[in-house]
Amino acid sequence: MSVRIFITGGTFDKEYNELTGQLYFKDSHLPEMLELGRCRVAVDFRTLMMIDSLEMTDMDRELIARHCMDAEENQIIITHGTDTMADTAIILEKNVNGKTVVITGAMVPYKFGSSDGLFNLGSAMAFVQTLNPGVYVVMNGRCFHAANVRKNKQTGEFEELT
Amino acid sequence: MSVRIFITGGTFDKEYNELTGQLYFKDSHLPEMLELGRCRVAVDFRTLMMIDSLEMTDMDRELIARHCMDAEENQIIITHGTDTMADTAIILEKNVNGKTVVITGAMVPYKFGSSDGLFNLGSAMAFVQTLNPGVYVVMNGRCFHAANVRKNKQTGEFEELT
Amino acid sequence: MSVRIFITGGTFDKEYNELTGQLYFKDSHLPEMLELGRCRVAVDFRTLMMIDSLEMTDMDRELIARHCMDAEENQIIITHGTDTMADTAIILEKNVNGKTVVITGAMVPYKFGSSDGLFNLGSAMAFVQTLNPGVYVVMNGRCFHAANVRKNKQTGEFEELT
Amino acid sequence: MSVRIFITGGTFDKEYNELTGQLYFKDSHLPEMLELGRCRVAVDFRTLMMIDSLEMTDMDRELIARHCMDAEENQIIITHGTDTMADTAIILEKNVNGKTVVITGAMVPYKFGSSDGLFNLGSAMAFVQTLNPGVYVVMNGRCFHAANVRKNKQTGEFEELT
Fold it and tell me: What is the pLDDT of residue C162?
């Protein structure tokens, strides 16, 4: 039994374009991160999109949901921008049944020294193997239920609604 | 409810002494790593020893076990050298009841660019919150039962005995 | 005899704001970089401004020139955004006499893994101690005269005009 | 006109063997470091040996001297362990004429986060292009004449004899 990883972009995968001075997306760093973590869980990954989560539409979210349902695996990690993680979680909650879906990301791009990305990926990998079916957001070493999470824009941390 | 972390040393916390060219132990990097991971799980940590796990004696292991039993917390992470993780796991399994104990570490010191430490710490933090009481080794994104794990010296990876 | 360093901002000192996802300026990383390089040249540094060099005006450049002339030191390093380094060099060339002035910077922020900043600072420190009075741009391990340098926008490299 | 780089090993190029927990030599990181520094000076490099400088014999030093004399280039950088840099400098001083030879290295391996290697390489690249013929040790952002330098074992810094 392996874990399926869907890549959607987000801060996680942003890079610095040294010619323009802008942040942009190139390839995902996920394979490199799994290698760094010496991860030996069987995984399959696929890039569904490579966008800032502020630009993610409901159509994008339905596409993600469909991929979750169509996947053979029952354990799914989604890398995602932090700004709209909670929105995606709600849509997946409605559309994906019988699977453990963990959404994670990073506050700082993996390629920058101070990134939380590797820690979050380690957490996500563990939570996806142990949690009951359902949709979760995994950030800050914690796991939140889809319907009960928001990003606190002031602190950059995730917290329960209630 | 918070997580208790006991620090025992191991590769995880080794540093390079630039005057002697030797690897050595100074302070633990655990606080820095939790900060980097933006971890918001309540934790308390204490350094029990700062040694290479090849030098760890059964008396050391009993000390660790006693601290696990005496701790108020039921969720405990132990950072540990990889070489004798499995030995410590067996002794803890015999002596610690009703608690979830996760032993983790790193193949490469945290301070060196290519360390798996942050990934492992993320995994350990998630597994300790979700696994049933028992003693586990967490490495390579995986979780192993105390009685069924060994480090493969050829590959540096952890695997089941059977 | 010590080296004077004037900080003006540029990519060198940009950081990632994890709440907004934007690059911004906070404090200069220069002290940290000199420490990392175990630099034992006596230096004094002062931040004159903290701006993107595309926003630098001629008034800013005259301010830099005045500080160069007023400084007690005859060896001066200026950290600067790469886009208008050559423009500043020309104005300094006209206004600063009898001193060795080296302008340097980075293509990628120091805080991001792949920065050339530390290499450039090492080069600048060496060139400023050895070159005859004049104004120079130091990038790519090379040293260019003020009147004969441009940044190639396609490659991101510095080259002679002729 | 290009710069010749001879690699002899030293802390600079040490790596961490995650199976044995020992430091060891594999390949030189020099090409990677020049790329990181976006160095556009024409260089040719060759590995002469890959050893700890405490193990370097006078025969090794004569080999290095011969390569310096035989090289077409008049600007030569030698990467070298810090412990016996001064000894090698004296032998090269006696045997190499009419060339600018710069010996440099690092207190901490390049692959470890806190290395001074990139800074030193940047300095060495600049000094070798600007100094008069002679043999020099370049560390700590400074340049020392072959006959007037020692490593202070207490501080790890280089200093003049007199």
Answer: 85
Distance, in Å, from the CA atom of C144 to the CA atom of C152, rounded to the nearest integer, reads 14
List the single best residue of B11, B12, B15, B18 to mutate versus D (max D Cβ within 10 A). Answer: B18
Closest CA–CA distance from residue A162 to any residue of chain C (Å): 23
**Phi, psi for C87 (deg, rounded to 5):** -65, -45
**D105 within 8 A of D139, measured Cβ to Cβ:** yes
Residue B1 clears pLDDT 80, i.e. is over it: no
With beta carbons under 8 A apart, name residues in chain A contacting C11: 18, 21
Task: Determine whether the interchain pair A109/C153 forms a contact, defined as Cβ–Cβ distance below 8 Å.
Answer: no
Q: Which of C96, C91, C89, C39 is nearest to C71 (CA)?
A: C96
In this prediction, the answer to ipTM > 0.90 reads yes
What is the C-alpha to C-alpha distance for residues B34 and B50, in angstroms, rounded to an integer?
Answer: 19
> Can you tell me the distance from the alpha carbon of C47 to that of A104, in angstroms, rounded to the nearest whole number?
39
Q: Exposure pattern of B35-49 as b/e (b: 16+ CB <10 Å)?
A: ebbbbebebeeebbe
Q: Rounded to whole angstroms, what are the CA distances from C3 to C36, C50, C74, D96?
A: 18, 20, 7, 32
| Threshold 0.90, pTM exceeds | yes
Chain C contact residues (CB < 8 Å to A): 11, 16, 18-19, 21, 23, 52, 107-109, 111-114, 153-154, 156
End-to-end CA distance of chain B: 35
- What residues are paired with B83 via a beta bridge? none
Please report the beta strands in D43-153, taking only residues with DSSP state E, as ranges in sequence order: 43-51, 75-79, 100-104, 134-139, 142-145, 150-151
Amino acid A91 reads I
